Amino acid sequence: MIPKTVGCVALLSLAVLGHPPVRAQTTVPVTLMTAGDGSAFLPYGQGIVTYLASKGITVEIKKSAGSNENLSAVDALATTIGAAFMGSAYDAVNGTGWAMGHKHENLRALFPMYDTSFQIAALRKSAIGSLADLDGKKVGVGPAKGPAEVFFRAAAEIAHVKPIIVNGDPALLVRLVTSGEIDALWQGAVVPIPSLGEVANQADAVIFGLSDAEVAAMLAKFPQLAATTVPAGTYKGQATEIKSVSAWNFVVANKDLPVDTAYAITKAVLSANDPKSQIYPTAAGTLAVNAARNRIMPFHPGAMRFYAEAGVKLPSP
User: Fold this and answer.
1) How many CB atoms neighbour CB 19 within 10 A?
2) Is 273 helix (H, G, I), strand (E, B) or coil?
3) 4-114+249-310 and 117-247: same fold?
4) pLDDT in tens, 142-186
5) Residue 62: which residues within 8 A CB-CB, separation 6 or more?
6) Contacts of 9 by beta carbon, 8 Å cutoff, 6+ apart
7) Which fold is adopted by the domain 4-114+249-310?
């Protein structure tokens, strides 16, 4: 008989090793926090959960307001894992920015997801094509106090503009900008950003980013970010490249997630031969080699066990 305290670990470990999974009613499934409808985190997370299920590993999915909520929930709960933008994780770990005064000391990295950058969509007829054009305009920025809002407020301050912030799930904000009820939509996600792609597909729109000076100022303010470019043609009607800032996303766990559980989840996900087709199209970067993209927080010991077996050298955070 499997003790209640090890039921979940046994289920995950045996599944990954190729043995029939143990079905124990005492097993409490891990919860993966993602984001809301229209976000990039949600379909990626659904792909992860479906893929893990095919390996006999049960993980429940939960919608959320995105990275900041996920980081706080994971920090508080041993059996919760979450998708997180490492630009936001930097503040969580250091107790700065949105996490001012509270260091999230229980966070540990599991595996890389993909790179996220920020862009803006507006209807072409609005004649909006830069941050400077957003003064006094209604701009959708995703869920309240989420990473998109945090970084947009900083960008707006750098550009010396005072937009009117509008919060909501990306799917709602797409409808608002295409109907003309708001003037623009700022989002950060894997490129092409799903919500901005929807705007460009549904209406005659422009997608733009930051100027060279704005990129430089953002990097000076946020050392966790990097400069990036989006090639022309990434979005419908995009004739020139877009300049912006970016950082990677990782699935993170609580330090008290059982070691065997963290190992099993990490090994299963990173053992996919073709994550783009087996997990989700945006999972192309979900590769063991990209673990080195994390220089923000320590890795979970269970994840470290897998990386050691795979011969992946991890950086010091």
Assistant:
1) 11
2) coil
3) yes
4) 999 888 999 999 999 999 999 999 999 999 999 999 999 999 999
5) 31, 32, 33, 34
6) 258, 260, 261, 264
7) D-Maltodextrin-Binding Protein; domain 2 (3.40.190)
